[in-house]
Design brief:
Strand order of the largest sheet: 2-1-5-10-9-6-7-8
Strand content: 15-25%
Oligomer: single chain
CATH architecture: 3-Layer(aba) Sandwich
Largest sheet: 8 strands, parallel
Number of helices: 10
Bound molecules: zinc ion
Structural class: alpha/beta
Helix content: 25-40%
């Protein structure tokens, strides 16, 4: 069994996106008091503040960071063409989403925990250095990687992204980076339209990006077979010191935004397999970060199954 923590903070309820798919009820349904019964033995830990703006600017343009802060301070508005609304408190919520993963990193590197899950919103895997995109404001995972590299001298990291959408923002950040393996499994075609199998990174990073697109209607059996045949050997061959999961649950059969056929059992299976690799390569160290998942009942069941599997 791993020592596992779950991070959630009420600030996630204040990123008010109105009737948008990525809305505050996602955070409400993942409150510790609502999910505790399903994840026995998992610790609920507070999110701690960091020098967060500085860490954000390791990945994002300072001008973009300052603009997001300004838009929110003046009451909110759209951060991109229409997909990413912000309210007065969205900047603080986005900062806390980053803080949650940095807090998890500190606890794991201090030897207090093995695995952690952040149930915070907004998500991050579409966010690009100069702009918001696809419900994402800051690259939670990108910033976490830089934090682990710079503060804790972690040399090789793997990011496995099983959100149903391609994580174009994360891919962009690590496109030329040989020290970070980025693996994305996603429906194609679907937003954001990137993530072709031929896209494998560039320059020194050629070969450390792995894209696995799936046609709409792909069954769980077909998906997991490819996970076993492609993802597990890639992570094993890379030999990371730390494993990060971009955990979106919008590939679930009940999700309204996509057309894959995954179930909570499939997510649990993938998590157990990744955990085995983390035990072998990473001293068991995993941080998993919530991305999408828009059927609320399915989201709660998937998160519970995933976090149970992280604990083991
Ligand atoms: Zn998604």
């Amino acid at each position: 069994m791993s020592r596992t923590a779950y991070y959630w903070d009420p600030i996630s309820l204040e990123h008010d996106t109105g009737a948008h798919a990525e809305h505050m009820l996602r955070a409400d349904r993942l409150r510790p008091e609502k999910i505790a019964h399903a994840i026995d033995g998992v610790a609920f830990r507070p999110v701690e503040p960091h020098d967060t703006a500085e860490w954000i600017c390791r990945i994002h343009d300072r001008q973009y960071h300052d603009w997001v802060k300004e838009v929110c301070r003046s009451g909110g508005g759209l951060l991109d063409g229409g997909d990413t609304p912000a309210s007065a408190r969205s900047y603080d919520a986005a900062l806390a989403s980053v803080d949650a993963v940095l807090t998890a990193a500190d606890a794991i590197m201090a030897g207090e925990l093995d695995t952690a899950f952040s149930a915070m919103r907004p998500p991050g895997h579409h966010a690009l250095p100069p702009r918001a995109m696809g419900f994402c404001i800051f690259s939670n995972v990108g910033i976490l990687v830089r934090y682990l590299e710079e503060k804790y001298r972690i040399g090789r990291l793997a990011v496995v992204d099983f959100d149903v959408h391609h994580g174009n923002g994360t891919q962009h950040v690590f496109w030329r980076d040989p020290d970070v393996l980025y693996v994305s499994l996603h429906q194609f075609p679907l937003f954001p339209g990137t993530g072709a199998a031929r896209d494998e990174g560039d320059g020194p990073g050629l070969g450390t990006t792995l894209n696995i697109p799936f046609s709409p209607g792909t069954t769980e059996g077909e998906y997991l077979a490819k996970f076993e045949a492609k993802v597990l050997p890639a992570v094993d061959a890379f030999g990371p010191e730390f494993l990060i999961i971009s955990a979106g649950f919008d590939g679930h059969v009940a999700d309204p935004l996509a057309d894959l056929r995954l179930t909570e059992d499939g997510y649990a299976w993938m998590t157990r397999e990744l955990k085995s690799l983390a035990t072998e390569w990473c001293q068991g160290r995993i941080i998993s970060v919530l991305e999408g998942g828009y059927n609320l009942d399915a989201l709660v069941r998937c998160v519970a199954a995933h976090v149970q599997a992280l604990r083991g």
